[in-house]
Amino acid sequence: MNKYIKNLLTNTGPQILFNKKNFILKPSLQTTLGYQSFGNKNKNKFFYVISRWPTSGFFSNLTFVVGHLRICKKIGFIPIIDMKNYKTLYNEKHKIFNTYNAWEYYFEKLNNFTLKEVYQSKNVFFSSLKFNKSTPIDMNDKKVFKLIKEIKIKKNILIKYKNFKKNKFKKNEKILGVHFRGSTYKIARGHAFPATVKLMVENINQLFKKYNYEKIFLVTEEDLYAKELKKIFKDKCIIYPSYRMTTIDSFKNYPRKNHRYLLGEEILIETLLLSNCTGITYVKSNVSSAAINFSENKIKLHPLYYGTNSRNKFISAILWKIKSVIPKFLGGLKLIKK
Questions:
Q1: Alpha-carbon distance 224 to 255, whole Å?
Q2: Do 144 and 67 contact (CB within 8 A), yes or no?
Q3: Alpha-carbon separation of residue 313 from 6, 13, 28, 157, 179 (angstroms)
Q4: Which residue among 198, 244, 287, 312 has the highest number of C-beta atoms inside a 10 angstrom radius?
Q5: What is the DSSP letter of 154?
Q6: How many CB atoms neighbour CB 25 within 10 A?
Q7: Please, is 277 exposed, middle or buried when counting C-beta atoms within 10 Å of its C-beta (0-12, 13-18, 19+)?
Q8: Could you tell me if 113 and 218 lie in one domain?
């Protein structure tokens, strides 16, 4: 009964492409430093398998990984990231860059050991599958970014990012990064409310006037938002050509080859581009936090907060819609100082 009630009141969110779960160690047995011996290889080495279940968004997964890299550093174990047997939202059914391990779609391996070799080795320890007290849950956590430089992004992704930046980001131009979440964030239980188009446009105009921004770089997964802001700001609006949803969640259809892989590639490139803006306006998320911390220069922050959605599945499904149309004095969306 408890399980049924929890499911009833919880938004499950996106799901992996396929149902097959190839867990090496059963989730019920997997706790921090859960031990398993798979064979006699590498008797004098100690491996630490970083794996997560259930999976989540791109930068949530990255935060999880980096948190466990800290643990590896402390205890001197060899980190192994397994996003093949413990699948993410970004895993494809076929190989990408000759691997089924989604970590290696986007990032270089941390060492030369293969999953096959590790799962034939003598001493294999497993991370917890979920965040715990020893692992930071926020990309803003400074402990996370002490290790982020050890993670190398794939060269093909960096080339796309640098080419777009070179063509669209002019030297000394003051660009306002706009991270404008919509889609499922409107109904996500327990998450901060996103802005409406009207509120975001008012916010951008105020920031243009106050800080003399010349252009905006817009990051949004919703096609309607991209079209509306492009119509309003015209040539002043820069947008990376990523996939944007219309009425269907980006993870609930498969409109192009390698769609799940590309969703991850696109948000990584957009975040790197956000980090190059002069300032950024946003409702807090791991994307905005990552962009802020990726930035090599001090970036001016213009955070927005309109309150937090209900944790009840049914209430959260309609609350943003109601608050987005009613006047502020009746409880409509309004900017709240934190």
A1: 18
A2: yes
A3: 10, 11, 26, 37, 25
A4: 287
A5: P
A6: 20
A7: buried
A8: no
Spell out the alpha helix ranges (H) of 213-285: 223-233, 259-274
Looking at the fold, whether 90 and 50 belong to one and the same domain comes out as: yes
Take residue 265 and report the two structure tokens written for it.
Answer: 């590639």
Tokens read off for 61:
């997964």
Question: Letter for the amino acid at 156?
Answer: N
pLDDT digits (tens, 9 = 90+) for 303-317: 999 999 998 888 988
Residue 129 sits in the same domain as residue 19 = yes
d(CA 191, CA 193): 6
Q: Are 170 and 294 in the same domain?
A: yes
Q: How far is the C-alpha of 292 from the C-alpha of 287, rounded, in Å?
A: 9
**C-alpha triplet 218, 224, 183: angle, nearest 5°:** 85
pLDDT, one tens digit per residue, over 76-106 is 999 999 999 999 999 999 999 999 999 999 9
Q: Which residues of 110-137 are buried (b: 16+ CB within 10 A; e: fewer)?
A: beebebeebbebbbbbbbbbbbeeebbb
Asked if residue 2 is part of any domain, the answer here is no
Range of the domain at 106: 10-150
Rounded to whole angstroms, the maximal C-alpha distance in the chain is 69
Specify whether the CB–CB gap between 229 and 200 falls below 8 A. yes
The total of structural domains in the chain comes to 2
Judge if 297 and 196 occupy the same domain: yes
Q: How far is CA 185 from CA 123, 271, 328, in A?
A: 42, 18, 20
Q: Are residues 180 and 111 in the same domain?
A: no
pLDDT digits (tens, 9 = 90+) for 110-164: 999 999 999 999 999 999 888 877 777 777 766 666 677 788 999 999 999 999 9
- The answer to whether the beta carbons of residues 269 and 157 sit under 8 Å apart is yes
